[in-house]
Amino acid sequence: MSETNTPAPEAAEGHRYTAAMAADIEARWQDVWDAEGTYEAPNPTGDLAGDPAVVARPKKFIMDMFPYPSGAGLHVGHPLGYIATDVFARHQRMSGHNVLHTLGFDAFGLPAEQYAVQTGTHPRVSTEANIENMKVQLRRLGLGHDKRRSFATIDPEYYKWTQWIFLQIYNSWYDADAKKARPVSELVAAFEDGTREVPGGRAWADLTAAERADVLNGFRLAYASDAPVNWCPGLGTVLANEEVTADGRSERGNFPVFKSRLSQWNMRITAYADRLLDDLDALDWPEAIKLQQRNWIGRSEGARVDFALGDEAITVFTTRPDTLFGATYMVLAPEHPLVEKFIPAAWPEGTHDVWTGGYATPAEAVAAYRKQAASKSDVERQAEAKDKTGVFTGEYAVNPVSGAKVPVFIADYVLMGYGTGAIMAVPAHDTRDFEFARAFELPVRCVVDPTDGRGTDTAEWEDAFVSHDAKLVNSSGEGISLDGLGVVEAKAAITDWLTERGIGEGTVNFRLRDWLFSRQRYWGEPFPIVYDEAGVAHPLPESMLPLELPEVEDYSPRTFEPDDATSKPETPLSRNEAWVNVELDLGDGVKSYRRETNTMPNWAGSCWYELRYLDPHNASALVDPEIEQYWMGPREGAPHGGVDLYVGGAEHAVLHLLYARFWSKVLFDLGHVSSAEPFHKLFNQGMIQAYAYTDARGVYVPAAEVEERDGGYFYQGEPVKREHGKMGKSLKNAVTPDEICEEYGADTLRLYEMAMGPLDVSRPWDTRAVVGQYRLLQRLWRNIVDEETGEVTVVDGEPDEATLRALHKAIDGAGSDMAGLRFNTAIAKITELNNALTKAGRPLERSVAERLVLLVAPLAPHIAEELWHRLGHTDSVVHQDFPVADPAYVVDETVTCVVQVKGKVKARLEVPPGISEADLEQLAVNDAGVVAALGGAEIRKVIVRAPKLVNIVI
Among the three residues 595, 629, 664, which one is the final residue of a domain in this structure? Predict the structure, then answer.
């Protein structure tokens, strides 16, 4: 046993538990835990292999969502989830599990890059300084992490494998028949031997290298495409849909975002849409999060329909092909690539003035409208309440069922990112189409018989009639009649008709779009891709990984005026010509290549970090298969495998969580892992809020400097307004954990955050209330240690029955609460027990004191470790067994039985919990109060619900 395991020296205030004593205890035991590897979890094999007996225990892999190391450091809201997982991990360890609990850092990201732009400091320098500061703050909280497993995504030995995974995805395609990813090499082999037809019909051998690359690009799960993107000139980069706010601005920096067409890397996540949906059912996640993912993926069944337009065809996806006869116009998204192909030089004769937008030619009208639409977010464009805008393209398409010519418009309420970017408009039966038709004086044709009595004449309609359970009318044409059919029958009939004629077919559509994977930034993972002189992409071999970031003189992408929608990206990496232009031998001799100058998004490193925690020092593989199977593999109740408990904020429902699920499935399909899902159980912790204060200008003032007096709040003598808000730097209401640790100790902070309320509910911070948990620890200390002498006061002997009942009830209740993440109620039960022991006014029996210490150990580990050693133990409290309740003492000695006569309570009886119904009935009818209430009346019936209720009917 190391010398550091000796009890603390006398504190300045004798032997009373104070903040100074807490600080000494906590720092000392943290040193011991680090020195002795107290929290190290052994793997079954490899460099982290350990005690086989520990490996043989049931495993438990517990994770927090990756923290980003901010320069501002932590406030007390940040550790809420970390403390919760630590308490749970400690309880599981004491309950006989081999527990893996660690924490790394998601360290690529825009804040460090922006700081580098402002100061010239390399992002790695500031990020690593932030990491070190955060480590100090987290260590002070006594978190039981296996520090051997920690890393940062900016470590080259980590992002080597991020790049390796990108290459696995790049070199894969999704086989829809097999419903899994397969290597591209197998696809090439099928093209070569003719077992699979090459798109376009030519032989594979007849294609040039560039032509082959184009074909494969249409299949690869990671591919480059010239597609509509969210371009943010103010940041100089493109953004994923999820990084754009509802009002069309960037989450970072609040700059305007525009639609633009650029060549970017994408991930074909849409290929996995069905599996991402179906596999949600087996996950132990909050239903609200599952619903958000289902809505984001947005699966819908319908039909593809082609509307002829000259030599072209406009393809639409519709969930209501039964209403085709009611399609009186079409709308394309402003970004639709067909728009530029068919715009006539002049407006057709008879064009309605309201259709032209006041422009002299279709080209002018379309160009102006596209520029206007580019400045709006997808959310703005689809807002139900906004006025419908659009412009006629000057062309007409042909309705395939009626043969009628229908005008083709562009309008911003149609998105290129959903369906085909084109819709057939059925204004009689779609609210948005109806509003657009009325605004542009377009015909409205009723094809679904209204059931609300309005009739089929649409001239006086004030809104659309939308129904999925009505009969079709006005829907007959050449070779097809839907009149009189219900919606379901009509859908089937029209889909068959379209399929037979080769102008449509039944299909499934998803709201989910492919994942935009390029960023025009410096501080991110470089792509392991180079381009030859013909512009063909080539993956780097694994031997050339990691491809590290080069030094650059300017860390910022070229930024533009925030409103400059016509600007184009220029990345920081493109300025380092010596790095960009290289001579490489990729297996066919030394040639000249140009590197990819975009970087990966900050989501890349967090898509797979759970796997690296398992085997962090493996230089030859992503993860050892045996280790991955042990910690993550499928098991009873978790058919897809995954982390046992993952705790983090609900704000990541459709970003990180969806992306990580996609990467897991690709790696699973390719045989690299046994787990098809990354996180089996997900728990979303609430948020710690705090009062914020604004002055007369509406500007936030430092909350710590606000005074409360006479029922009001004042800052520097001026009145201020109080509100509840998220704790943080922007609201100037942050409280740091360091402040609380200085005043009360880390164990008090841990207890307070866990006692504030249910873990999944947001709660207000109140520094004044922290003292309650501080006093709990002081009473705990006094129950075991004499504050005058420092001697342990426990005695030998057996506790009385009342003490045993209080003890075992607390063990039973608090233990099940900790297992269920109900830490606030666990603390309440421990507090009740500790108060009862204090009130007894006599020394605790050793068996009671030891179990009390074990009970509190997951929540307040420092004081528990100190008391455990003062009680004479030489091994750590961390690895002791959690106390087990004796059922005989958990059951109440007696329970109160309510006796009712004619529905009114007439007696309360104290009875044994196991009393029989017959005995309870006999006691009730013979009770003096009940006899008096009966007054000699005849008893008709006695209803007995032993042991708590007897109801007598007279």
Answer: 595
3-state secondary structure of 635: strand
Distance in angstroms (rounded) separating the CA atoms of residues 367 and 374 = 11
pLDDT band at 730 (very low <50, low <70, confident <90, very high): confident
Q: Retrieve residue 475's tokens.
A: 């829907």
- Look at residue 846 and give its three-state secondary structure: helix
Q: Could you tell me if residue 541 is inside a domain?
A: yes
Which residues are CB-neighbours of 645 under 8 A, at least 6 positions away?
60, 61, 62, 63, 85, 88, 681, 683
Instruction: Return phi, psi of residue 595, to 5°.
Output: -75, 155
Between the alpha carbon of residue 609 and those of residues 16, 42, 47, 210, 663, the distances in Å are 44, 18, 19, 35, 11
**CA atoms of 21 and 835, how far apart (whole Å):** 22
User: What's the rounded Cα separation, in Å, for the pair 450 and 454?
Assistant: 6
Tokens 């403390």 -> residue: 83
Residue 310, domain extent: 299-510
Residue 398 within any structural domain of the chain: yes
- Alpha helices by DSSP H, listed for 155-298, are 156-170, 184-193, 209-217, 273-278, 287-297
Band (5; pLDDT cuts 50, 70, 90): very low
Statement to judge: residues 381 and 485 lie in one domain = yes
Kindly indicate the confidence band of residue 797, based on its pLDDT and cuts at 50, 70 and 90.
very high
C-beta separation of 295 from 397 below 8 A? no
Region 1-16: what's the mean pLDDT?
Answer: 52
Residues 6+ apart with CB under 8 A from 226: 261, 262, 263
Indicate whether 208 belongs to any domain.
yes
- Work out how many domains the chain is built from and give that number: 4
Helix axes 123-140, 110-119, angle to 10 degrees: 120
| Sheet strand arrangement including 706-709 | 706-709, 712-715, 718-719
Terminal Cα-to-Cα distance of the chain (whole angstroms)? 74
What is the rounded CA–CA span in Å between residue 933 and residue 497? 80
The reply to whether 725 falls in a domain is yes
- The residue-averaged pLDDT of 555-584 equals 90
Question: In the structure, what pLDDT confidence band is assigned to residue 652 with cuts at 50, 70 and 90?
Answer: confident
Q: Label residue 905 exposed, middle or buried (CB < 10 Å: 0-12, 13-18, 19+).
A: exposed
pLDDT band, very low/low/confident/very high, at 12 (cuts 50, 70, 90): very low
Q: Report the C-alpha gap between 29 and 41 in whole angstroms.
A: 19
Judgement on whether residues 215 and 268 belong to the same structural domain of the protein: yes
Same domain, 224 and 316: no
Render pLDDT for 660-694 as a digit per residue (tens, 0 to 9).
999 999 999 999 999 999 999 999 999 998 889 99
pLDDT at 433 over 50: yes
Rounded Cα distance, 729 and 702, in Å: 10
Domain boundary among 540, 561, 595: 595
Q: Are residue 495 and residue 522 in the same domain, yes or no? A: no
Q: Are residues 259 and 308 in the same domain?
A: no
Could you give the C-alpha distances from 97 to 53, 60, 644, 826, 884, in angstroms and in order?
Answer: 11, 6, 12, 20, 15
Residue 328 shares a structural domain with residue 187: no
- CATH number assigned to the domain comprising residue 384: 3.90.740.10
CA 277 to chain centre: 15
The pLDDT tens digits of the residues spanning 292-311 come to: 999 999 999 999 999 999 88
**Do 349 and 423 lie in a common domain?**
yes
Whether the predicted pLDDT of 418 surpasses 80: no
Q: Find out whether the peptide bond into 616 is cis, omega within 30 degrees of 0.
A: no
- The whole-chain average pLDDT of the chain stands at 93
Is the domain of 400 the same as that of 428?
Answer: yes
230-259 average pLDDT score = 85
* Nearest Cα to Cα of residue 526 among 553, 554, 559, 551: 551
Question: How far apart, in whole angstroms, are the C-alpha atoms of residue 796 and residue 780?
Answer: 19
pLDDT recorded at residue 64:
97
